[in-house]
Amino acid sequence: MSSDETRDGGTLDGFRIGQVPAGVGDEVSDFASEWDDVRFASRVWERQTPDGHRVDLRVHVLRGERLVDLTALRDFLREYHERDPAEWHLSEFPHDDSAGLHDDVQAFWLVEPGVAVSVLTLPEFSESLLPTARSIQAGDSDAGE
Predict the structure, then answer these.
(1) Residue 43 backbone zone (phi > 0: left; psi -120 to 50: alpha; other: beta)
(2) Of 26, 38, 51, 127, which one is least surrounded by beta carbons within 10 A?
(3) pLDDT tens across the length of the chain (145 residues)
(4) What predicted TM-score, i.e. pTM, was given to this entire model?
(5) So where are the chain's domains?
(6) Is residue 135 within 8 Å of 17, Cβ to Cβ?
(7) Distance CA 48, CA 126 (A)
(8) How far is it, in rounded angstroms, from Cα 126 to Cα 124?
């Protein structure tokens, strides 16, 4: 794939990733995991570097009963990423008919109770974070890559 333009990110666990920022790595992998009763379907874009591999972009679809609202999602992600609540400064952003939260390298929102999406990137791609997040839409759940 060319890294000169944004590109389509495919479908992950029922969500269409409408764009991947220009410049992110072309090596794409999907993973499934679980942490504290929340299931993750994850897709990562990475590249080889002289020191190994570098992950440029991660998209996670999270599913779990504890994700009842945006506050519960924020608290879960704070624990998962081991963020200090006093130092994790988040701003609100619109995503479709709801609100999400973001900092410079992560954006997340609750799609509906029990289902959320999180996008993480490197600081060099921070200007593409919200456009990438807004491009992710619920889609055909049996489509996949």
Answers:
(1) beta
(2) 51
(3) 334 466 899 999 999 999 999 899 999 999 999 999 999 999 999 999 898 889 999 999 999 999 999 999 999 999 999 999 899 999 999 998 889 999 999 999 999 999 999 999 999 999 999 999 999 999 854 444 4
(4) 0.90
(5) 10-138
(6) yes
(7) 20
(8) 6
